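Help!! Second protein's tokens look totally different from the first
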Amino acid sequence: MNHLKTFVLLAGLTALFVGAGYMIGGPTGMLIALVFAVGMNLFSYWNADKIVLRMYGAVEVDAGHPEPLIRAYVADIEDLADRAGLPRPRITVIDSEQPNAFATGRDPAHAAVAASTGLLSLLDRDEIRGVMAHELAHVKNRDTLTMTVTATIAGAISALANFGLFFGGARDDDERPGGLIGTIALAILAPIAAMLVQMAISRSREYEADRVGAQIAGDGRALARALEKIEAYARGGAVNVEAERNPATAHLFIINPLSGRGGDNLFSTHPATHNRVEALLRLGVSQATRGRVGTAVPTGESRRIGPWS
């Protein structure tokens, strides 16, 4: 049902984009919008990981990194991927004070995960594992492609609506339904509708990724602690500059990078953090991690001083 819901919502986004083209340019505009939507989806499919990683300046790291904190991060992701039965993803770090993380890629064989320098400095070893297990759950559930395509279409709808507002009003012919009033209504309502669909997709995916991620890591409470710490820090004012420039990508992160405030309502990209924490605690997953192998630094150690502190 979750996959069916996502398919329907994505179809709704595409229909909204095509409908916006019709309102601006009539049948010709609708055809152009349809062709453009297909092209965007194909481009996003093949380049999903590259688009987001380049946008946030992600730097790939490996087990040979000179910093122990990074080596531990890499070793844990490789271990978690093996536990989840996934191909090992590209592992990257983004230079941002705000603690956060995301995953991207068109399928498990072409996935990439990213954690911010702020996250690696703030959280302890088990909490980082919990966060990255959540991101690998998105990969396992094949959410990464869906969420990247959603961001692409939502951003394009906003751009198209703005184009119609600034350039569509100059034309007053019979080919454009609604005339100037219709164009203004489109510019206001289309981005809102796209935002609502985008948020609905994100919220339904986050709960499932929390559940699967807790199973992968073997410790739902570590992820719960991490979520509380990340949100508290974000509320303190740490700004993710690139996320502010590209708000259509906000739903890719584990916690809303724009404000750090979640709520289960129409205007939130993420479920309320306290609801996610309660759901994780109800899972009753044992805190003891079972079958852990290949760690570079002993787990459960006190907070380390990283290279960005």
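Here's the second one for comparison:
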Amino acid sequence: MNNLLENADLRVFVTVARQGSFAGAAQALGMSAAYVSKRIGVLEAALGVRLFQRTTRRVVITEDGAQAFERAQAILDSLDDLIEESAERRRAPSGQLRVCSSFGFGRQVVAPAIARLARAYPALQIRFEVFDRLVDPVAEGFDLDVRIGDEIAPQLIARRLMVNHRILCAAPAYLAQHGTPRTLQDLAGHQCLVIKERDHPFGVWRLRAKGGEVTVKVSGALSTNHGEVALRWALDGAGIVLRSRWHAQPLLASGQLVQILPEYAQEANVWAVYPQRLGNSAKVRVCVEFLERELAANMAADRAPDAGA
């Protein structure tokens, strides 16, 4: 039973339960699938119950496994709290920290900041992942999600890292050929570069003006799931794009893009989102405060990172 007390095996078990497969857990943990399977077998033998039903295609948690998952998560949370309390006394956050973000914003902005965070706090072990979909930090085991957009589930804690909004832009060459839209209704006759990323509705732009929020359906010959691609197309004169102002501002200043319909914008603040159970986590607090300073420094230096959302 000594192995039951080892948090490493409990973490393997919890990860398999979340991923729904040995292969997925192995990838998340940086282990081999054979090793993950072996540790689950050892844990099942120690507990005297079957934790998963295995088939050739997937792994399904059993009723005993579901009960064990709740207890295992509680044990790991308590252990992490103990480590963090000790670290807090040393004023040096330590332990594992799982962070996620979207593809473009995560790659261009969050990843460099995370690297600097790791250098500042070498006792932290940070795993950073990017996705093209909305992540549930609780269900997927992330400590922190750095996301763009104000629609956040009420069961999560959210701290705004930066005020941001998106604006409508096009290249001068496109406007010279197709004309400049004067109303939202005019967009129906234009090539709009539609982006599908994470939780953003495809082909629908929700914009805010003095009169409140309006929704406009847009379309065009080109669409993508990546903001960098859409921006490249816009710069090449292919159509109208909706991009973050702090990303587009240098391109507007250089004349490569022109803002259209400036009375309309889309709220797209940057948030740090994390589970309620981590509300007092020292490592999460340190990470959030660090990212807040990093984004403020970026803005002060008038840089142009790709928001990618």
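Reply: Different proteins will give different token patterns, so don't panic. The first helix runs from residue 7 to 19.
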